[in-house]
Structures are given as C-alpha cells and as structure tokens.
Amino acid sequence: MKAVVIHAAKDLRVEEREAETPGPGQVDVAIEAGGICGSDLHYYNHGGFGTVRVREPMILGHEVAGTIKALGQGVSHLAVGDRVAVSPSRPCNECEYCLLGEQNHCLNMRFYGSAMPMPHIQGAFRQRLVAEAWQCHKVADGVSINEAAMAEPFAVTLHGVNRAGALLGKRVLVTGCGPIGALAIIAARAHGAREVVATDVMETVLKKALEIGADRVINVAETPEQLSAYSSNKGYFDVQFEASGNGQAVRSGLEVLKPRSVLVQLGLGGDVSIPQNMVVAKEIEMKGTFRFHKEFGLAVDLINQRRVDLKPLLTGTYPIEDAVAAFESAGDRAKSMKVQLAF
After folding, report:
1. Domains parsed from the chain with CATH numbers
2. Fewer Cβ in 10 A, N or C end of the chain?
3. pLDDT tens-digit readout, 39-78
4. For 79-90, b where at least 16 C-beta lie within 10 A, e where not — what string?
C-alpha cells in the first residue's frame, strides 16, 4: 500500500508500506479521505512543534474515513462494506486518567501520527488501515466520505464546548477562523448559542465564517475598534473560543468578556502574558481543552443526522500522489480552509 511519510521538515514522501492483517476485534479499512491538520502542517513545515520533533520516518494523518474490507475475529457490530469514520484516539483504558473517564489524558495514549513517543506512533494517511473495531463509527447513507473525515476536528471543538459549559442563549466570541475556529462556530450554533461573533485578520476566512453561521465578523487587523466597542459595561460576551493561538487575541478577548465569563483556549501557541488583574476583577474562568474522546461519536452522529453542515469547509482534495502539493495548499490560509487527501 501507499502511505504519506514525513522524514524531516519539507521532506514528505509517498512510500510503499506493507499492509497489515486484522486480528481479533479489529477491522481492515480502505482509507478514502484524510484531512490535513495543523499538527500535520507543523511536522511538514518545521519537523515538529515545541519539543516534539520527528526522529524517524513517520506516517502522518489522523482525520480519516473509509470503507471496511475485512473483519477480525469477534467483530459483530460492523460488516464488510460499512463506511466508517475512524477515531484516532486509542487510550489504554487502564491508567488512572482512563479509569476516571478522562481518556484524553491517557498516560499511554497511542494517537495516530504522533512523534511524542519513541518509536513514533504511525499515522493513518495510508491506503489500508487496521483499526480496533471500537474506533470505527458508521457513516450514514448520503453522507460523503469527505464529511465523515471531518468528524475528528469537529470532535475537538465539541470537547471545547463541553469545557465551556452550557451555551444555550449565550453570546459567543470566536477568535481565529481557521478550520478549528470555523468548526467552533458550527459547534456553538448546534449547542444553542444566541449570538456568534468571529474575528480574524484575513477577509477570505471571515467570509467563510459568515457562510457557516457567524452573525458578525471583524477583521481585527483592519478595524480592531469594532471589537473594542464590545468592552463597554465590563464586557459583552459570555464565552470566548480562542482558536488562533495568538496572545493579542487572548488579551483583546479578556477586555470584551463580561464578568464570570469563560475563555476556552482551543488554539496552540507559545507563552503569552495576560492582564491578570482583569481576570481577577472580572472573575473570568480560563480553561484549556485537549483532544477529545466520547465527543467523536457525537460528532459522527451530528453529521449523520444532518444537524450540522461541514461541507463548506472543504476547499480542496488531492490524490495521494500529490501529497506535497496538498500540504502546500493546506498551509496557504488565503486559499484553503480544509484540504483532504484522496487515497
């Protein structure tokens, strides 16, 4: 089979790898669509992120969906021919965090396409993937395989919503309108947000934000005063989903959040300084959010039931042979929102 393998920064290759055979409780999935994530781009552009570096060849990818081709012994709830979205989250279900129901913090997590441990955990950008049956969630008839492959990033934002608490009737600010920010808009709408305002520094992604459900968008590079206007009377928004990883977005968000509001940090960034006095005076809760677990099944259900429409986020598909071009396109925010590979 063919697989997309990162060797070092800007050294991405399509290579032949041996296909595996499913064991007990496993299934063999012919991968058909795989979305390029921000972490994939970090590996491609920089060879890693933070202290995490590629130290051996690693198959990339974790946003995938495909069709089951074979079943291992004991698999009864799936059948050959079923189309499935595959969760990349493989916790041990034995460590202290798993036993608390916090599988996203598993001490022995095996998340597809991760260079954190050594040897690296190989990813899912491959033509055939052997997965545990419990990782696979059926895709409804009429739902495209491309939509199904977006269940993983959507699950990230659904976990962010869980961290934020109830959104019914709340006014929500989304800072950063890349794929995760865009999906946060959709997730907030699905959970009853009364109003959603989105910010970014690029007009192309702000137009997309309006298309998928934002009530208003603000280009904070051109008209930052439009956001600042929300700071009167101690603030306006109940919840901020910060998806840019930019320190200024955090600070400006704190200014327009009302007392006892919640800031959920979705985007990864470096160390930032924050106005601590404002956090204290307004009693603002700042929360991190990391991956997901049970939310993956919810993401697939919402997609299957047509409760959400993720199709507008897909801006390009490339055959596996053109993986390098796909990664270059995915890294161009002016042109791309979500780019996928076709296997």
Report:
1. 2-150+310-342 (3.90.180.10), 156-288 (3.40.50.720)
2. N
3. 999 999 999 988 899 999 999 999 999 999 999 999 999 9
4. eeebbbbbbbbb
| Alpha-carbon span 82 to 19, nearest angstrom | 20
CB-based contact 239:164 (threshold 8 Å): yes
Take residue 34 and report the two structure tokens written for it. 């795989």
Is the whole-model pTM more than 0.70?
yes
3-state helix, strand, coil in the chain (%, to 5): 30, 30, 40
CA–CA separation, 21 and 128 (whole Å): 10
What DSSP string describes 197-224?
A: EEEES-HHHHHHHHHHT-SEEEETTT-T
- The C-alpha atoms of residue 295 and residue 103 are separated, in whole angstroms, by 11
DSSP code at position 161: H
CA 276 – CA 121 distance, rounded (Å) = 38
**Whether 239 contacts 286, CB under 8 Å:** no
